[in-house]
From TrEMBL, chain A:
Signal peptide: none annotated. This is Amidohydrolase family protein. Residues 314-394 form the Amidohydrolase-related domain. SUPFAM superfamilies: Composite domain of metallo-dependent hydrolases, Metallo-dependent hydrolases. PANTHER family: ALPHA-D-RIBOSE 1-METHYLPHOSPHONATE 5-TRIPHOSPHATE DIPHOSPHATASE. It comes from Christiangramia antarctica. It comes from the Bacteria. InterPro entries: Amidohydro-rel, Metal-dep_hydrolase_composite, Metal_Hydrolase, Metallo-dep_Hydrolase.
Automatic annotation (TrEMBL), chain B:
Residues 1-19 form the signal peptide. Residues 621-928 form the Amidohydrolase-related domain. Residues 507-548 are annotated as: Disordered. CDD domains: Met_dep_hydrolase_C. Keywords: Coiled coil, Signal. This is Amidohydrolase family protein. Gene3D superfamilies: Metal-dependent hydrolases, Urease, subunit C, domain 1. It comes from Christiangramia antarctica. InterPro entries: Amidohydro-rel, Metal-dep_hydrolase_composite, Metal_Hydrolase, Metallo-dep_Hydrolase. Residues 944-971 form a coiled coil. Residues 527-548 have a biased composition (Basic and acidic residues). It comes from the Bacteria.
Length: 440, 995
């Protein structure tokens, strides 16, 4: 009987909802919230000690230093002295919500067949109830750009927030960008056809680029007036109108320079390099053409034996030093579940010498600017969305990235997940055993 | 007269060999011939050390009868004058597949084949000692000619297929002979390799360590079979026993495999002759200590085409250095007095053999050593010194006649005699008309220059410095020279004809003028001018200068390799924050003294006593990180050919050149358990390594660590997403049965062994399982789901042993109480999940929960990237589950040391322990921490300052080599396109890789 009571108590205490895997999205903000006394990391490189942040109607209505102890705070007050407030971290170039379990094919919706698929839209496949998506929130990763993979043109991404009932209320910016996988001047040896393994020169490089140019040209011709419907061409209209950005996934220096040339020829305004392993060699051109780079996750191994062991750790800093606008992205092996480590990727860049606040800026304001959502997101500023979190300490360090609160558009999120529920359930299993041991 | 003699000579040769005298003759009369052929006035290279100037030798019936300055010339002799020519013993190639048809790969379905296809033979198709070259041999005239042109007279050929390949045969490349004459030994040696037979699709072995284990088991089984213990007939084992006393030649294609072959040989008292890779120079001492004679392919890497700088980035310094250094391999082998012979294997004998040989000589190989490697060494190796490899009485008449020093570029190989039979490769009676001449023709004076090979010369004719169109031909000592008329307005030609039977100063003959008139002409040979000689000399000097400087070999021979291995130092770390990983916790402002590789003192204000003082103020000193689950530094990970591979050992496949080692050191890792993969329930034996960068594989092994083995459960072993569904087990239910079955068999095995049963057969797999049951070998089991974790503990308990460690153990938190009761430790990931179905309930709080329950918990990597950030991974447990910092730090130091049973030696900072230490610039659990020094047993293997210097050095060496390669390409040398080797990224949790 006693045991049963304890169990019920625990269920009440931790709010375990048996049978419901996902957390319920938070309702819209109705009451003002005031966060008092925290160190605010604004996301624009600045820090505000002992801050006062007021969230109203989903927005930050005020942010300023606490001027007197006698100030009147509206609504619910969160005393956050000694704590740290950060803007919600943004994960660009992500496949969150498109795949649930890597090795289980039926859960995989990231890569459609075909080569040129601008009309493929990630948004409608985005699973707002993914258990992996909810696991981002306890680390402060609150928004992401959901990107389809594969082909020469993979499709069109959208930006979402990570606390939603469905893709419709998740969306922050619909169809924000077109994604091109730039051809590689090297290709893998077709070992099954008797070629050697490893990379060799790709004889099709030029013709693959030509394919892209031809497609852009055909789209333009079509869009200037046609009496038939072509879904792929139609999906290009916002690109030419400057409403859809172009993200080019490319690593090689030569390829990056060729991509910049393509940008000029096609007159594309909003152009972003994704990956950029060798972008340093093209830093001057990137800077001149105002092209930002989403640097691939710093927690990677160097591509070549001869390279500095810490090259991936410091690439973002080197590009930033060269005047290129930089953010970080986490694509690659196990990318979805690893995306929650985004703050630590920034921490690593800081470890290699970048100022911590600036390292934070990479994954907040810079990411927002690159995705075109900086009007509302990416920094703690009055008038912007109240999308932020409170951490016990430095959020870029896993020792101290411990969240007490997180908000998206002023809605206070659950920081519980499938994982925290299991943690609590089993921690308590053993605690109960300890208790019963003692009794015996 | 001379021509007649020549024809007669050829005629006679045809009948010189009469070994098959008892054969009936139906196409004519027998024409016996016991004539002698006597060669005189030759410069005879009797053997590499002995030269007879202007000597004589005689041959009869295919053998050499006499050699000397002056020998008796019997009456029935044909005498050949070799004035100005040289004679060498012809060459011997011990690794050849001459005359053996290329085998076709076995075809079959898409599912793997686990059983043997051959019946009446060994259980593994890749053991083929019953194959012999002689049954598969057909003399190949075309290939023979290529080899003859390269100077070879005898090859040892075999069927290059399988792990044990059966016996080879020694065959003479005698032109126009019968097979019975050519075969010198039809069982000349047994060949082996680590490569499987193409004739069978049998899966096992899928790895190099599997091949090694298979060899060991086969040797043991052969002995057991020889003792009459088998009930069945095994033709393969019978053949192996029959081949036992033959020369054993082991074919490899890389340096590590050379050492692996030698290791297996040593274990069974067999000294293999080893077909090497040409990279022996990278570890000369170890090559020397193998005691093996090496057969070295005369092949060097081509320069890379580095014109495209982007492409050039993809070649590693190691590959570039290999291009630079490999041609000096033979010279270095000779200097170390390592016996070696050369092979044309893997190269075009006709095109590349001599070019490459001359290159080796250019790089310092002496001509004597080169000749020995081609003659006396192989003859001795194959046990035929009396018959082959020298021009001496009683030996086969196998020799080559050259125009001069064979090891010079211009020298022509005229004739290759094998078993007294002649193969003419280039007519040696051609008068050498090359030279500079003054040509006088109808009062006009011309300059004639003849260059090139005497048998196919080139000519240039000038008048008043004007070059005229010229065409020359020279055959049977008749010269035809066509010169275009000096009057360029006309298309007219002068034709010159001359017979030049002898080497004389002048060429004279008849000229046919364009107008039809005939006249005589004389071309007078000019003395070589001083300027021409000077030019020659200058060219020679220039060549010397152009010889690329050979870069020093480093250990390993790649970027970040050591020119000299770092030495043990006595060091005092002064004023550090010391993370003891002991009850002492974290000590501020503390000194640690390292002496003779051990931690000698921990305390305040210690006396350096001669030790080097490192100011560690503001820095953190910790024990080296230990990664319980790593696949770094390995040439292979899985032996997936069977559901148990307890016989294989990771210690066999250590790759000390893996850059992952250096990167791990840069992340503060000093010890790893190199685990077998998870392709099968019972995996292979672990190697526990100290990351001693630059050392040999055996010097990396953590000697005092006890033996371990990898087990695995779940999706990988049941082949959830691959494998065709034919291998047991396909379910978790079957996995239990595999373990139960193997351990039941091991019980029976042990009983039989202990009883001393006469027919007891030693089985490497069973031996391992018995060790496990007796607690002499510990199990680290890959595991995810609570049901299977529980199951394995129950199986172990049933057989009276404990599971030592569950590795990955992502649902350990669900059965932590049962685990604690069993006494098993846990080595887990910090936050990985969702990559496959069985990790759906993996939570980052796992380590914290298990730690709280009282299990020894470690954080492992299973990944070359994460391994170098294990400090961060440990720190995640502070976030996930609120673990204390000290406990978190223990999860990557003393806890894994406990799991590996080496906690009395490493894993913490304590007096008397091995000095495996890391100096960090910051709190070691913080994201901002970077190791500045990583030390193993008092030797600093990573130093951030030295790393900086090495980066510069790498840049410099790359630049130099790229510039050398560009020069090489410019000079017309063949280059190869840049290819990027793809680094193998190894995990054991990913389906597609099954590690």
């Amino acid at each position: 009987m006693k045991f049963k009571n304890i169990t019920s108590l625990i269920i009440i205490l931790f709010g375990i909802k048996s049978g419901v895997a996902q957390q319920t999205p938070a309702p819209a903000q109705t009451e003002a919230i005031t966060i008092v006394g925290a160190t605010a990391h604004l996301g624009n490189g600045e820090v505000m000690e002992n801050s006062l942040i007021i969230l109203e109607d989903g927005k930050i209505s005020r942010i300023q230093p606490v001027t007197s102890t006698k100030m009147q705070y509206p609504g619910k007050i969160i005393q956050a002295k000694g704590k740290h407030v950060y803007p919600g971290i943004i994960a660009p170039n992500s496949t969150l919500g498109l795949v649930e379990i890597d090795a289980v094919k039926p859960t995989d919706d990231e890569d459609e067949i075909g080569e040129i698929l601008p009309n493929i839209r990630s948004l409608i496949a985005y699973n707002a109830e993914s258990k992996i998506v909810e696991s981002m929130r306890p680390n402060g990763v609150l928004l992401g750009q959901i990107v389809p993979r594969g082909g020469l043109i993979s499709g069109t991404s959208s930006v979402v927030q990570f606390d939603a009932w469905n893709w419709e209320d998740a969306v922050v910016k619909e169809d924000d960008a077109l994604h091109i996988n730039w051809p590689n001047s090297y290709r893998r040896g077709r070992w099954w056809a008797g070629e050697e393994r490893g990379l060799k020169a790709n004889d099709d490089y030029t013709s693959d680029i030509q394919k892209l140019s031809d497609f852009f040209a055909s789209s333009k011709a079509y869009l200037s007036g046609s009496d038939y419907t072509n879904l792929a061409y139609d999906a290009m209209r916002p690109v030419f109108e400057g409403k859809k950005k172009v993200f080019v996934h490319v690593d090689g220096e030569k390829e990056i320079l060729d991509a910049i040339q393509f940008k000029k020829e096609q007159n594309i305004n909003h152009f972003v390099i994704v990956g950029g392993y060798h972008a340093l060699g093209a830093a001057r051109q990137l800077k001149e053409n105002n092209i930002p780079v989403l640097v691939n996750r710093p927690h990677s191994l160097p591509n070549q034996d001869d390279e500095d062991y810490d090259y991936p750790y410091k690439l973002a800093k080197l590009l930033d030093d060269a005047g290129v606008m930089v953010s970080l992205e986490s694509s690659g092996q196990m990318e979805r579940m690893n995306t929650r480590n985004l703050p630590f990727y920034a921490g690593t860049v800081a470890a290699l010498g970048m100022d911590k606040e600036h390292a934070l800026e990479l994954i907040t304001l810079n990411a927002a600017k690159i995705l075109g959502i900086d009007e509302n997101y990416g920094s703690l500023e009055a008038g912007k969305s109240a999308t932020l979190f409170i951490s016990e300490g430095d959020a870029l360090d896993m020792r101290t990235n411990i969240l007490s609160h997180a908000f998206i558009d002023g809605r206070e999120l659950s920081l519980e997940t499938h994982q925290t529920e299991l943690w609590k359930r089993y921690s308590n299993k053993y605690k109960n055993q300890d208790n019963s041991d003692k009794k015996e | 007269m001379r021509l007649k003699l020549l024809i007669l000579g050829i005629f006679c040769c045809l009948f010189q060999l009469n070994a098959q005298e008892y054969f009936p003759k139906n196409d004519g009369v027998t024409n016996p011939n016991t004539n002698f052929t006597v060669f005189k006035n030759a410069r005879i290279h009797v053997d590499p050390q002995t030269v007879i100037e202007s000597g004589m030798f005689s041959i009869q019936n295919g053998k050499i009868k006499a050699v000397g300055k002056n020998i008796n010339v019997p009456e029935n002799s044909i005498v050949i004058d070799l004035e100005g020519k040289e004679v060498y013993p012809s060459f011997i190639d011990l690794y050849s597949d001459f005359g053996i048809e290329k085998l076709k790969r076995a075809e079959g379905g898409s599912s793997p084949q686990y059983d043997a296809s051959r019946e009446g033979f060994y259980w593994n198709d890749h053991i083929r000692p019953d194959i012999d070259a002689i049954s598969n041999f057909n003399f190949d005239d075309k290939e023979a000619e290529k080899l003859q042109k390269a100077g070879f007279g005898v090859v040892n050929t075999h069927v290059p297929d399988g792990i044990i390949r059966g016996s080879g045969m020694l065959v003479a490349l005698t032109p126009d002979a019968m097979e019975g004459d050519r075969i010198l030994n039809e069982r000349s040696g047994q060949y082996l390799s680590f490569d499987k037979s193409v004739l069978s699709r049998q899966s096992y072995p899928t790895s190099i360590m599997g091949a090694m284990a298979l060899l060991r088991q086969t040797y043991m089984d052969a002995q057991w079979y020889a003792n009459g213990n088998a009930d069945n007939k095994d033709l393969a084992l019978e053949a192996l026993n029959k081949n036992k006393n033959l020369l054993q030649i082991f074919a490899t294609d890389n340096l590590l495999d050379e050492f692996r072959a030698d290791k297996v040989g040593d274990e069974f008292g067999i000294q293999y002759v080893i077909l090497g890779s040409g990279n022996e120079y990278q570890r000369l001492d170890k090559v020397k200590s193998s005691g093996a004679t090496y057969i070295v392919p005369l092949k060097f890497p081509d320069a890379y085409d580095v014109e495209n700088p982007y492409m050039a980035e993809y070649i590693s310094l190691a590959e570039m250095k290999q291009w630079n250094q490999a041609p000096a391999n033979l010279k270095m082998l000779a200097e170390k007095a390592i016996p070696f012979t050369l092979t044309t294997h893997s190269l075009d004998a006709e095109k590349d053999f001599k070019t490459n040989l001359l290159k080796a000589i250019e790089y310092g190989l002496s001509k004597e050593d080169a000749l020995a490697a081609l003659t006396t060494v192989p003859a001795k190796t194959i046990g035929k010194s009396a018959e082959l490899g020298a021009i001496k009485t009683g030996a086969w008449a196998n020799f080559i006649i050259t125009s001069g020093d064979y090891f010079e570029k211009e020298t022509t190989l005229y004739e290759n005699w094998v078993q007294g039979k002649k193969k003419v490769l280039s007519n040696m009676d051609v008068t050498n008309i090359t030279g500079e001449y003054d040509l006088n023709l109808k009062g006009e004076s011309y300059e004639l220059s003849i260059t090139g090979e005497p048998s196919s010369p080139k000519a240039e004719v000038k008048t008043d410095d004007k070059k005229l169109g010229t065409k020359i031909s020279f055959s049977d000592n008749w010269m035809n020279l066509l010169i275009s008329s000096p009057d360029s307005t006309k298309t007219e030609f002068i034709r010159l004809v001359a017979h030049v039977p002898d080497l004389s100063e002048n060429i004279s003959g008849k000229a046919f003028m364009p107008d039809g008139s005939e006249t005589s002409f004389t071309a007078t040979k000019k003395a070589k001018s001083d300027t021409a000689e000077k030019k020659d000399k200058e060219e020679e000097e220039k060549k010397d200068k152009e010889k690329p400087e050979i870069l020093p070999v480093t250990f390993p021979n790649s970027a970040y390799g050591f020119k000299q291995l770092p030495k043990q130092e006595n060091v005092l770390f002064k004023n550090a924050t010391v993370w003891t990983s002991e009850d002492d916790g974290v000590l501020e402002n503390t000194d640690v003294l390292v002496k003779n590789g051990m931690i000698s003192k921990v305390g305040k204000d210690l006396n350096a006593g001669g030790a080097k003082v490192i100011d560690a103020t503001g820095k953190h000193l910790t024990a080296g990180i230990i990664d319980e689950h790593s696949h770094l530094a390995a040439s292979a990970i899985n032996e997936a050919g069977q559901n148990s591979s307890a016989e294989v050992q990771m210690e066999d496949v250590i790759d000390p050149s893996d850059m992952g080692i250096y990167r791990d050191l840069a992340g503060g890792v000093t010890t790893i358990q190199l685990l077998h993969g998870s392709a099968n329930p019972i995996g292979g034996r672990s190697a526990i390594l100290k990351l001693k960068w630059g050392e040999t594989p055996e010097n990396m092994i953590f000697e005092q660590a006890p033996p371990f083995i990898k087990f695995a459960l779940g999706e990988n072993v049941k082949q959830a997403n691959w494998g065709g569904g034919v291998r047991f087990p396909q379910t978790r239910m079957g996995v239990e049965q595999v373990f139960t079955d193997y351990f039941s068999r091991a019980k029976t095995y042990e009983k039989k062994k202990n009883n001393g049963d006469k027919d007891f057969r030693k089985d490497l797999e069973m031996e391992t399982l018995v060790e496990i049951m007796n607690g002499d070998r510990f199990v680290s089991s890959h595991s995810y789901i609570q049901s299977e974790i529980n199951m394995l503990m129950k199986v172990a308990e049933k057989f009276g042993f404990n599971i030592n460690t569950f590795t990955h153990i992502l649902e350990g938190y669900k059965v932590a109480d049962i685990m604690k009761e069993h006494g098993v430790g846990a080595s887990t990931f910090s936050d990985w999940w969702a990559y496959k179905y069985e990790v759906n309930d993996a939570i980052p709080y796992n380590a914290s929960i298990m730690n709280e329950v009282g299990i020894t918990v470690a954080i492992n990597s299973d990944d070359g990237e994460m391994s170098r950030r294990l400090n961060q991974e440990a720190a995640k447990s502070i976030k996930y589950g609120g673990m204390s910092e000290e406990d978190a730090w223990k999860m990557v130091t003393i806890n894994p040391a406990k799991l590996l049973h080496v906690d009395d030696l490493v894993g913490s900072i304590k007096t008397g322990k091995q000095a495996d230490l890391v100096l960090w610039n910051n709190h070691p659990l913080s994201i901002y921490a970077i190791p500045e020094k990583t030390m193993i047993e008092g030797v600093v293997y990573f130093d951030i300052e030295k790393d900086k210097a090495m980066r510069e050095e790498i840049k410099k060496e790359r630049n130099e080599l790229i510039s050398d390669m560009l020069k090489a390409k410019n000079s017309g040398v063949k280059t190869q396109p840049v290819k990027k080797k793809e680094e193998q990224k190894v995990h054991c949790n990913l389906l597609e890789e099954v590690h």
